[in-house]
Amino acid sequence: MTDSTKHEESLTIGKTSATERDANSSDKFNFWLAPDQIVNPFDIVEVEHLGEARDSEGKPTGKPSRSYGLVTTIEHKTDSPNHLANFVSSNFGDVTETNINTPRVGTNVAKVNILSNNGEIYMPVQNDRPVLFASPDGIAEALGIDTMAEKDRIPAGLIKMSNGASTVAYLDQEFMLGPEGAHINISGISGLATKTSFAMFMLQSVLQKAEKTTGEDGSPLSDKIAIIVLNVKQGDLLQIDQPGDPPNVDQMEMWEAMGMEPRPFKNVRYLLPRSNSPGLPNSFLEPLSGYQMYAYALSDAADKLDFLLSDISDQSGAMDALVGDIMQGILNREASFKNCSSWENLLNGEPLVKNGKTEKWGDHYASTIGKFRRHLRRIVKTRTTGLFTNSRARNELNLADQIREIEGGHVYAIDIARLNDEEQKLVFGDVLRTVYELKAEDPENRVSKKPVPEKVIFFVDELNKYAPAGVRGSPILEQVLDIAERGRSLGVILFSAQQFMSAVHSRVTGNCATKILGRTGASEIGSPDYRFLDDDLKMNLTRLGKGELIATHAVYRQPVKIVFPRPAYKQRQPGT
Amino acid sequence: MRSPLPFLAPALELIGKNATVLPSSGGAFEDMARPDIEEADDRFFGSASDAKQGFKDFAETPTPNWRELYRPTPAIFRTDKHVFRYFCDGSIKTYFLGTIIEGDRSYPLELTQIGAAIVHRKDDGRLEVARFERRILLLVPFTGGSGISESLLNELRKHQRPDFRVIDVAMPDPLSERRQDPRDKAGAKARYEMHMLEQQLIEEFAPSRGADEWTIIDGGIRKGEFIELPRTVGVAKSFDRTPTFTLRKGNRGTMRKDISGVLMGLKYAHRTAAFFAHGGRVAFWYVRLRAQGEVDYPLMGVVKVEIPTPETGEPIQADLADHLSSALVGERNVTPHGLDKRWHAHLYPIFQAERVIKTNFFSESVLLASIRWPKPDAGI
Fold it and tell me: What is the ipTM of this complex?
């Protein structure tokens, strides 16, 4: 017996098992486990197979090939043909009967989905082959990480196995930031799913990796990446440049294992919405490192009225036509809008109102105009949080102008947490459209002489608000779809999150090359959006702990379970 | 993949070339054993005088009172005292291959897989295989001159190897000699060979047991010959239902009871008094493992225990019979209910020993694929 054989025997956790009824196939195999051996779903195992392994250049290595597989579920099987036999075997249902001379013969059987074979051999795994936990190199080979160029490997967390071993789960930059694929979508219930934390960790990971990589001009790639994050909840993302509590030993080990430093974001600009109180932002907290306020006068929002009124019921399309004509009228400074320079003018002045009454204007009925006025008044006057103003003060900025001047190496945190739904949609649509135009068209309105960042990464939570499933023709949805479908070639990357993937338009999630799933309810995983997951794996989503996620990535052949460290920026709210 | 039975083809080719073969349909079919075959074996292994006169002598000391035939034997579990450590069973699968015609004689040709296994129960109750043997037997009648020719038999025997033997069915043995039908006789011979294999395994294995480790062998203590090993008992889940018992009522004559009458009064976790059998070489008694209300029929849930006596005619200690019976009652859980119709009297480790053997038998598909008779034009 060779040393390697002895070593393999000592690591063997079970043997493959093919039966008449439960055969091994090219896609799946089973193995029984040695008594007391523990494995869990998402563990990656390896087994020696037929044929010869090949190296990365496809040349035979002279060693037997190995198949890698992902444990999907584990069953305990006994020879009891039915529950009645077990009842009888407890002395006819005597629950106090605990003395069992010979425990019933049983074994744990793990079901495994094939990940890959390093000899490209997809014959079924044969019976009675020793099964081992995959080594870190084996995991990389199994997932396809070994095929990623070193410069493209972006750490996304650690894969931890039941035997205590762990390895870094890398995402391929080519499939995360384009051009091969792009976008990350994160789903999971609030609180436990750690969606925002993971998104921010990934942004940090992208930046740290880019810092270490230089472009053709010799400058770090991080200078060519800009990040825009929308803060939608409390002050979560309004302190991302402030250091948090030092990581504990476990957390530090995770950071180190991934070759990263636990640190807050650098070069962060905070953009907070104007409030109804003069000079004060409408935010849960004011960032320590300073901020700027943004607001919308009519001229700032004239080309985005479609976003503002996107939720209004409009089955006949009359409202859509009216909004379009009003936008054109203001933007083209048509004669009828010459006196229309503020929200007040638009609501109560010509051309929509004459002599204090709503009038028919062009082809638009008075009733449609009345509806427009009622909704707009509600949004910009009676129910506004202060975002809209008839004329911006000097310290109140036009958000689109700020975004148009976006610079690589900077992070833009835009607070929308206290805005109402219509206002949030306006801001989201405004930023998205501005970035898209900047990247897709000639940036003629850009003042800065600095180059437009090669990549603009956009993070937004609650994506279902902006790109809901089952909606057609919404201006915001169209904008999101544009980014989702064409962003990878333009360098506009969407990191998005929501509680329920089923609530988001399938063309958005479908275009995300990386999907991350946190803990999810049983009813949600029954929806068709999760059919890319093996049935055996789905129920694991309901059991994920805090900080545990399932990652599917274009390069990975099967989903993997990952853990990641807590963000290193300040997360506690003042006073909590 | 090559046949795992490489010896079979040359043997069959030899027969095919030297005799006329009327193959069974499909190449071979399994000869099913009769459901009461173990009962019959118990009867045939028993002595003729016992069967005729009934059992009358108590085989334990102190001698029981005729009024107190039953003794309580509350369960002793493994966790209290781990008495039985080894469990031995044999199993058999017989196939009828066809009828052979040589000259004016015709005889059946049967193929049998026999196996025996000993499983060891570890301290935590889990089982492991201690010994296992499997053999393939080709069964032909020879002795008496009404079967295979001597020359063909001698040629066949040249193909024998440790795991493949050619057996003369007509050679007398306790199980087959009283059978008349040739295939019935072949089946009994195969079972006899299986018992011999069991005996061989037990005797080879016995010296490696610990000082207080007991072995249970499935069925009676008499296999080919009597197994007279220390700390070894035979436990039969199926046994002869015909014997009678003649009990001496002090000075008031005798009372005769049949086995049903004896077992009907046997309560759960009790044993009967021990009786001598086989001319005093064996002591046996019955133990009830399951309450009568739990099973369909009063005689279910009872096992027959056999143990060799210290010397012929010397009774065993009643305390020992009590102790062994209590340990047997402790074996009541778990059961192969739903897997074996004899579950009520089956000991689970014995069931597993049987399973070890059966799962190591060649499957019918493999066996059929290995049976290739020469083409008629080439052979006859």
Answer: 0.79
Q: What is the pLDDT of residues B47-104, one digit of tens each?
A: 666 766 778 889 999 999 888 899 999 999 999 999 999 999 999 999 999 999 998 8
SS3 assignment for A176-195: HECCCCEEEEEECCCCCCCH
Distance from CA of A27 to the nearest CA of B (A): 24
For every residue of A314-383, which 3-state class applies, written as one string? CCCCHHHHHHHHHHHHHHCCCHHHCCCCCHHHHHHCCCCEECCEECCECCECHHHHHHHHHHHHHHHHHC
Distance CA B100, CA B106 (A): 5
Interface test with B, best of A102, A108, A126, A128 (most B CBs within 10 A): A102
Q: Could A103 and B294 be called an inter-chain contact, meaning their C-beta atoms sit closer than 8 Å?
A: no
Chain A residue closest in CA terms to B119: A102
- Does residue B2 belong to any structural domain of this protein? no
**Mutating which of B333, B340, B342, B348 best tests the A interface, going by the most A Cβ atoms within 10 A?**
B333
Delimiting residues of CATH 3.40.50.300 domain(s) in chain A: 167-295+392-563
Of B175 and A296, which is predicted with more confidence?
A: A296
In chain B, residues with a C-beta closer than 8 Å to the C-beta of A97 are: 333
Q: Would you call A84 and B339 a contact, using CB atoms and an 8 Å cutoff?
A: no
At A15, which helix (H) or strand (E)?
strand A12-16
Interatomic CA distance for residues A441 and A324, integer angstroms: 22
Identify whether A351 is preceded by a cis peptide bond (ω within 30 of 0): yes
- Homologous superfamily, domain A167-295+392-563: P-loop containing nucleotide triphosphate hydrolases (3.40.50.300)
Candidate from A88, A103, A105 with C-beta closest to B335: A88
Residue A200 Cα to chain centre, angstroms = 10
Q: A379-382 — which CB contacts under 8 Å span 24+ positions?
A: A379/A308, A379/A309, A379/A422, A379/A423, A380/A308, A380/A343, A380/A347, A381/A343, A381/A347
What is the C-alpha to C-alpha distance for residues A193 and A548, in angstroms, rounded to an integer? Answer: 8
* 8 Å CB contact of A85 and B77: no
Report the domain count for chain B.
1
Helix (H) or strand (E) holding A498: strand A492-498
CB contact under 8 A, A88 and B337: yes
Indicate whether B187 belongs to any domain. Answer: yes
SS3 (DSSP) at A218: coil
Q: pLDDT tens digits for B234-246? A: 999 988 888 889 8
A contacts of B343 (beta carbons < 8 Å): 88
Contacts of B349 in chain A (CB under 8 A): 102
- Domain of B319, in residue numbers: 8-379
CB atoms within 10 A of CB A31: 30
Lowest mean pLDDT among A116-120, A300-304, B39-43, B181-185: B39-43
Residue partners of A442: CB distance under 8 A and separation at least 6: none
Q: Is B1 an 8 Å CB contact of chain A?
A: no
Check CB contact of B363 with chain A, cutoff 8 Å: no
Closest CA of chain A from B121, distance in Å: 8
* Cβ–Cβ gap A81/B338 under 8 Å: yes
> Which residues does A contribute to its contact with B (CB < 8 Å)?
35, 79-82, 84-86, 88-92, 97, 99-105
Examine residue B56 and state whether it is found in any structural domain, yes or no: yes
Residue B210 DSSP one-character state: -
What letter does residue A163 receive in the DSSP assignment?
T
How many CB pairs below 8 A link A and B? 67
Task: Kindly list the averaged pLDDT for each block of 10 residues, start to end, along chain A of length 576.
Answer: 56 94 95 95 95 87 94 94 89 82 92 93 95 93 90 94 93 92 92 84 95 85 93 90 93 95 95 92 93 94 87 82 90 85 88 85 88 91 91 92 93 94 92 90 80 92 89 82 91 94 92 94 91 89 90 92 93 57
Residue B102 distance to chain A (closest CA, Å)? 41
